[in-house]
Amino acid sequence: MIQLKIGEHVDKQGLNIQQFAHKAGLSYGTAYGLYKGRVNRLDLHTLDRVCKALGVEPSDILIRVSDEDPRE
Questions:
Q1: What are the b/e assignments for 20-51, b being 16+ CB within 10 Å?
Q2: Domain containing 48: what range?
Q3: Are 4 and 60 in contact (CB under 8 A)?
Q4: Which of the chain's termini has less CB crowding within 10 Å, N or C?
Q5: CA-to-CA distance for 57 and 26, rounded, in angstroms?
Q6: How does pLDDT run across 23-63, given as a tens digit for each residue?
Q7: Number of domains making up the chain
Q8: What is the mean pLDDT of residues 5-25?
């Protein structure tokens, strides 16, 4: 499973969700979902906007974690 660390980077920069949304050119709803890590899909265009807004690379905000499912 992939987890997002976008909220951590937003907080580190002292931004609130509204400021992050504006800086990344996203709707508040999209920015909120990304901030909370509650998205199922993330297109490359949005990922690029987030990275530019936060000054990070995709590897800084995307983390692969174990699903804890031994069948995989």
A1: bbebbebeeebbbbbbeeeeeebeeebbebbb
A2: 2-64
A3: no
A4: C
A5: 18
A6: 999 999 999 999 999 999 999 999 999 999 999 999 999 99
A7: 1
A8: 98
